[in-house]
Fold this sequence. Notes:
7 copies of one chain form a homoheptamer. Chain A is mainly beta. A 5-stranded antiparallel sheet of chain A has the order 4-3-2-1-5, with no helix packed on it. The first copy, chain A, has 1 helix and 5 strands. Helix content of chain A is 9%, strand content 56%. Chains A, B, C, D, E, F, G: This is Sm domain-containing protein. Chains A, B, C, D, E, F, G: InterPro entries: Lsm6/sSmF, LSM_dom_sf, Sm, Sm_dom_euk/arc. Chains A, B, C, D, E, F, G: Pfam families: LSM (PF01423). Chains A, B, C, D, E, F, G: Belongs to the snRNP Sm proteins family. SmF/LSm6 subfamily.
Amino acid sequence: MSEKFDPSAFLSKIIGQPVIVKLSSGLEFHGDLQSIDGFMNVVLEDTKEYNKGKLTKTYADAFIRGNNVMYISQA
Amino acid sequence: MSEKFDPSAFLSKIIGQPVIVKLSSGLEFHGDLQSIDGFMNVVLEDTKEYNKGKLTKTYADAFIRGNNVMYISQA
Amino acid sequence: MSEKFDPSAFLSKIIGQPVIVKLSSGLEFHGDLQSIDGFMNVVLEDTKEYNKGKLTKTYADAFIRGNNVMYISQA
Amino acid sequence: MSEKFDPSAFLSKIIGQPVIVKLSSGLEFHGDLQSIDGFMNVVLEDTKEYNKGKLTKTYADAFIRGNNVMYISQA
Amino acid sequence: MSEKFDPSAFLSKIIGQPVIVKLSSGLEFHGDLQSIDGFMNVVLEDTKEYNKGKLTKTYADAFIRGNNVMYISQA
Amino acid sequence: MSEKFDPSAFLSKIIGQPVIVKLSSGLEFHGDLQSIDGFMNVVLEDTKEYNKGKLTKTYADAFIRGNNVMYISQA
Amino acid sequence: MSEKFDPSAFLSKIIGQPVIVKLSSGLEFHGDLQSIDGFMNVVLEDTKEYNKGKLTKTYADAFIRGNNVMYISQA
Lengths: 75, 75, 75, 75, 75, 75, 75
């Protein structure tokens, strides 16, 4: 990824792709990035929740509130 | 859910549906999503409160303050 | 409560009614909802304070600062 | 107190009266409410500081920063 | 102090006087209140730092960031 | 670096360079600083995640949310 | 320092001088104050990181995010 993106451009580039969303609490959500807004609120599709590496829940879709997000990375 | 929604559109789409609201403290509220506003304040109907998976309380209606919300998912 | 309220309309509907106000710290206040403002600051009348289910204090009136509020439910 | 006050009106009504100011940290300050502003910053006169019910300090006047305040009640 | 001050007037009244600044972390700073601004940022002169009542450090001048301040009282 | 930069000028000067991003939680991310915005949101390329000095994860690219950032230093 | 400075004037007065920056987490950074902005974001040169009094790291330059800063004092 040599092209220069500003952070929000990076996020819109990975819409629809599988991502990992880690929260400040340590919880991790794996799913397809359905949408994201300026407050870092995230909607994931086919979401799996992991706690300390263990699968704890699955959801069709999950709305994750931005202010808990620590980082988002491509899965 | 292949259509593209932005996060708040996602939320209004699930008004009236059974949802799970998880707070940063770990508490979970199960109920019908009655309404939600721009601050993520949520009103649930026929609400059940779970603490570490155990049912701890039931309410007719509960107003949950947005800044405690970690995520909202369809039940 | 089938009518659709937005969260703040819900709150004004329960003014004067007995409510439970739970704080992020876990403290609970039971009393009559005297008034509430846009910051979720709450004034309760005939207030009882509970800590882990035990009655710890009673007040004539108590002003509770909004940013500590986790949820408000009808008693 | 049957008259309807909004929260800030309640606070101005109790200026000059003995109050208890409880902070999110659990510390309690007992004193006469000298003044309060829109950020919930409080000045108390003849202030006593309690920690878990034990008197730990006394001050002539103390300025308490609003964002630590959990609740204010009439003593 | 029977005259009525609003909180910020109280603070400007004690400029130059010895004060105690307690932080939310429990640390205490004793020194002469050199200046304070609207964010509660404080500059103290001849500052002594106390941790649980024990003198831990002294500084010529210290700039203390407002959002950590719990209370300020006259020494 | 004797020239005078204001903090944001410093950050843009190190775009493209290897940096260490430490979060308030203690997690460290090592990678090339791809971009940064006014909220301190950071995108790193070829990212390595360290927890207490141990390599815990690697990502192609990671978006790190600004409000968790404690400091950024040149690697 | 008898002259009266407001806090931000104090900070600009000590630009270029050796300072100690203490974070709310307890970490301390010693270095030359290269620059500071209105959000209390700080750039230090020749930076040493101390944890509980022990030297843990050194950096050429470090950008420290303002909202973690507890106090800044002249070294």
